Amino acid sequence: MKTNEIRIIIDASCRDVFEFTLEPKNTPQWIDDVEEETISTQQIALGTIYSNSFGNMEVTDYERDKFFELTNKKTGVICSYSYRPINDTQTELTYFEYVQDGSELPGEMKHSYFEKLKELFTKK
């Protein structure tokens, strides 16, 4: 099975990193290939659909400030974000993606996106 895992330490609290990455209007600020992202619900929860130029991803697992998982039901791609506090002002963010059937990923998330995310918090 082909997987992609990215780990990065960000100088911000878990809550701040979680809230920023979960918010669809922030996605274009750190993922260059996304011009706009929307969600299907007012409040993000299990079943919420994120939509952008890559397709639709459903929230299939969610634990506030700790973890969320998105699944593309059409392609079988699953990606997850895990947040681990290092201390009150640092968070380790782990991104992991794979295809349910074990096939090759149609495209991988780039490490440079996470470096850009880290820079956004450095500038705050």
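(ticket continues) Second input and output from the same batch:
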Amino acid sequence: MIPILPNSSRTIVTILELSEVYDRLRSATTKQALTQNSISARKIAFVGTIQPDRFTISLKVTRPNNFLPVVRGRLESTHSGCLIFMKLGLFPSTRTYLIFWLLFVLVAGLIVSRQYESHLLLAAPLLLDLIILWIAWTNFNMQLRFTMRALDEVLEA
């Protein structure tokens, strides 16, 4: 099935031990946003929670970004390192907002199409929904690259 809303899944294979991955993620993550003047803010790349076998993080930003991915991950130890399984998706509020507007445009198009008894009028809202989804996916993928780059820097440090 083709996903409608932006999401992704990734798996990272690393030679680092599970405890080392946990320590690196924990040292690069805070539970709340830091001010820009904070000295430790320079080392912090993520905001979220880190547990020994799983984590939920997002990139630390200084201004709001609706399409920033939330990374939900699970750590598994192997005989030669660690596996990091990640699911990346939109924040719940962004997902709700996006679904609302996609449905609102579609319902409005159905009402107008029915009112004027023209099926051609339904094409405009469908096209608008496709444009909205294209913009959402494009912005999500752009933010996904930034997040993955930051995660790679934390794991390679």
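Agent notes: The chain has a mean pLDDT of 90. The first helix runs from residue 18 to 27. Closing as not reproducible unless the customer responds.
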